[in-house]
Each structure stands twice: as structure tokens, then as C-alpha cells.
């Protein structure tokens, strides 16, 4: 990994550590070695510790009194509770977006959707997830509610390694694509009630993939089925 050359960039350090957690290089419950990370990033302990404080507020790690820090363990209940709140916020964002969005913004989102479909047909999961993320973020931005966007972003970071899990069945993927097509159609019609409901249903109770991926410690597959924010 490329070293961080600039000084005091605790946010960049935090992002790098977040990437390690997301990609499984730092596992749930694993103690974080400040010495190893300082060497990896080429930074001193000061920006590293500031980064750890940021990640603690974002729910990715927990600080242990006089014992350093470790990666947060994701439980089924914690993820479900987070998803329930995110679903409410995303549903509201869709309703607000229908009130404020411009024709140009809708056209841009439709283009993103069409590109996402191409990657779906090519079974390119990584590129699919990237466009998927851009679509959801575009709808959030169109809500023109900065507080909503900030809250959603914070919650999303907490479960990022769950939402973009690479373990996903074809059936789940197929249904997610259908959901997205319905989402775009509702947005083009500016049907706020329908879009809000689609977005809520799309995110709620989608924990089975995360359970299969092993990132939820006490997964309960019988309690919720779905795909991780696809």
C-alpha cells in the first residue's frame, strides 16, 4: 500500500483503515496495532490516534481504556437496527428528491442505471456496486437535505463491509436489479410515495448475504432475507 506522505492527514489515515476493515484485512474483533499501521502508512502515532477517534465516532472501531482499539464486531441486531434507520432515511430522501430533482439529474441517474445494467449482464460485481452507490448517492443529493445526507453517510459507514459483500446469489442480484428499474421509473414519474416505499423495501431486512459472508457474528438467516444494498 502506498505510504501517506503528507503530515497530519488523519482523515486520509482514517479512510485507509476503513478500507482495510471493509476488505477484511482487519477482521471483526481484531486488535489494531498502532505500530504496524504507522509503518504501513508512514505516519506518526499522532495522526493515527486522531484517525482512530474518528473511526470510533463512525462506529467502525471501539476504543478500549488503556488497551488501544479493536474492530467493532457486527451483530445481527446491530446491523438490522442500522438498516431499519437507513431505510427510513433513504425512503424520505426519495420522497424529497421527487420534489426537487431536475430533468437533467434524472437523466444522469438513468444513464448510471443503464451502465449498471451492463455490468450486471457482464457479472462485473465490483463495477456494478460502484454505479449502484452513485445512484443511491445521487438520489440522496437530490433530496437537498444536508442533515439527512450526513446522518445517512454516517450510518452507511458503520455497515459498509456488510452492504457491499461479494457473496451474493444470482436470485438476490436479479431481484435487486428489478428493484432498481422500479426505482428509476418512479423517479422519472416523480411519484414520491412510490419511490419512498421502494427505497425502504429495498434496504430493509437485507442481511442474509452478510450472514453468509461471515461478517455478522450472530447471524439469524431466518429473520431477514435479501441482498446487501444492491
UniProtKB/TrEMBL annotation:
<dbReference type="Pfam" id="PF07729">
    <property type="entry name" value="FCD"/>
</dbReference>
<dbReference type="Pfam" id="PF00392">
    <property type="entry name" value="GntR"/>
</dbReference>
<dbReference type="InterPro" id="IPR008920">
    <property type="entry name" value="TF_FadR/GntR_C"/>
</dbReference>
<protein>
    <submittedName>
        <fullName>GntR family transcriptional regulator</fullName>
    </submittedName>
</protein>
<keyword id="KW-0238">DNA-binding</keyword>
<keyword id="KW-0805">Transcription regulation</keyword>
<dbReference type="InterPro" id="IPR000524">
    <property type="entry name" value="Tscrpt_reg_HTH_GntR"/>
</dbReference>
<dbReference type="GO" id="GO:0003677">
    <property type="term" value="F:DNA binding"/>
</dbReference>
<dbReference type="InterPro" id="IPR036388">
    <property type="entry name" value="WH-like_DNA-bd_sf"/>
</dbReference>
<dbReference type="InterPro" id="IPR036390">
    <property type="entry name" value="WH_DNA-bd_sf"/>
</dbReference>
<dbReference type="InterPro" id="IPR011711">
    <property type="entry name" value="GntR_C"/>
</dbReference>
<keyword id="KW-0804">Transcription</keyword>
<dbReference type="GO" id="GO:0003700">
    <property type="term" value="F:DNA-binding transcription factor activity"/>
</dbReference>
<feature type="domain" description="HTH gntR-type">
    <location>
        <begin position="7"/>
        <end position="74"/>
    </location>
</feature>
